[in-house]
Amino acid sequence: MGKPTGFMEFGRELPKKKDPSVRIQDNKEFVLNEEFGDKINQQASRCMDCGVPFCHNGCPIGNIIPEFNDAVYRDSWEEAWNILSSTNNFPEFTGRVCPAPCETACVLGINQDPITICNIEKTIVERAYKEGYAKPKKPRSRSGKKVAIIGSGPAGLSAAEQLNSAGHDVTVFERDEKVGGLLRFGIPDFKLSTAVIDRKVELMAEAGVNFVTNAHIGVDVNAEQIRQDFDAVLLTGGSTVPRDLPIPGRELNGVYFAMQFLAQNNRRANGWDLKTDEIHAGGKDVVVIGGGDTGSDCVGTSNRHGATSVTQVEIMPTPPEDRPANQPWPHYPMILRTSTSHEEGCDRHWNILTKEFIGDENGNLKALRIADLVWKTPKPGERPVFEEVIGSERDIPCEMAFLAMGFLHPEPHGVLAQLDIKLDDRGNVATENFMTNQKGVFAAGDMRTGQSLVVRCINEGRECARAVDSFLMGETNLEAKADSLMLSA
Fold first, then answer.
1. Looking at the predicted structure, is the pLDDT value of residue 489 above 50?
2. Per-residue CA distances from 69 to 14, 146, 229 (Å)
3. Mean pLDDT throughout 234-242?
4. Which CATH superfamily is domain 6-131 in?
C-alpha cells in the first residue's frame, strides 16, 4: 500500500473534458487525460489495499486493482502494465467504455467516493503504448492446432489473443471490412476511437493472429467447410437481432434501429463506405426510444449531426439518484446516470409509452404519439404491469426516431443454421463449458449469454479460450480469472 492516508488526503477527481459546445463539432475523443499530470498518482494513492478487495469481485475479469493502483502511486508504470494486462486483454477499451462495476464495489465507496479505477486503467495503458511496454503476445512455440474464430468483437478478440499465446494458429473471420465488431461499429468514435482499436489489432497481427475480413461465414463462406478446415471453431458473432417496436407507422421513412444509425456514423467519421442510404439527423427533431447506453450514444451522435432537438424517452420509471435499499453495496446499483452525451443536450423523459409513428402524405415520419404511464406493484411472483394515464396522450415532433431498446439474440440463420447449433429458450447458443451441441464448436460472448457489457465479453472470450485449449491439448495453462485463483488457493 503506497500511501496509507491517501484516501483521507485526496478526494475523487477525474480529468476535465472539452466543453460540450466544442466537442460536438467532431467525432473525436474529448477527455483531457494528458492534462491530468501527477493527479493520477494522488488518485491511485486513495486505494486502501483492502484486506478483502471487493473491487476484484465487482470486476467481471477479476482485475488485480489494488496492486496496479499501488504501482501507479509509486510511478512504477511498467509494473502497473504487467499487472493490468495479466487479466485484461483490452484495458484500452474497458478504460473508455466500461460502466465500472469495480468502482461501485470499491470498499471506499461505502462512505466516500470510490477510486477512479477506470481512469487509472486508461492512463496505464496509454503510458504502456507511449513507452513501449505494450508488446505483441507471441507464443514460445506452436502447437500445430488450428482455431477459427467467427466474429471479431471483444469476446472473439480476447479468445484470439489467448489462444494465439497458447501456441495455436488462430484465424479470426469478420463479415465487415474492418476488425472490431461492436467495438468498431457499435460504439461512437467520440467514446472509443477506431485508432485505439487499430493499434491493438496490429499488435495481435504481429503476434501471429490471422485476420480475414469481408468473410460472412454462413453466407459468403460455408460454415461446414470452416469446421472441416480447423481443429476447433469458436462462435462469437454477438447478439445482433434488435428488439423492434411493432406499432402503427413502423414502416415510415425516418424510423431506424439504433445500430443502423451508429454504425453508419462511424463509417462516415472514418471515410468508409456507408453501405446503406444516408441516415443523418441534421436539422431534424430526433426522438431516441430507449434509455440505456445505446440510446445515449444516439443522443451524442444526433447532437454532432446538428439535430434541431433531441428527446429521449424510456418506458421504465425514473431511476433513483442514490443507491436504493434493495441494491446495497457492493452490488451495481440501478441509479440515475447522466452521460457525457446527455450533458451535450437532451430532453429526457421516463414512464413514457410510445403508441404510434405518425407520417406525412409522402410516408415520412413527422410526429410520435406518446402517453404517460404508471407502473403497478406486482403480486409476489408476477411481472410488473403498467397502465396508461387517461388523457395524457399527445403528439410530439419527430422526424427521425431511433429504436434503442436492446437486443434479443444472435441471428439464427447463417452459421448457426448451417452447423445445426442448438439454441436455448431465449434464442442464444446453448453450451456446456462453452461447447455447443457440436463437438469442437464453441461459443462465447453475447451470442452465448445474450446482450451484455464489453468487459463481460472479454471475460467470456478468456474463459472460453481455456475450454478450447483444454479440448485441443487435454489441459490448459492459460490464465484463469483472478478471483477464481484466489478461491482455489
1. no
2. 15, 38, 45
3. 97
4. Alpha-helical ferredoxin (1.10.1060.10)
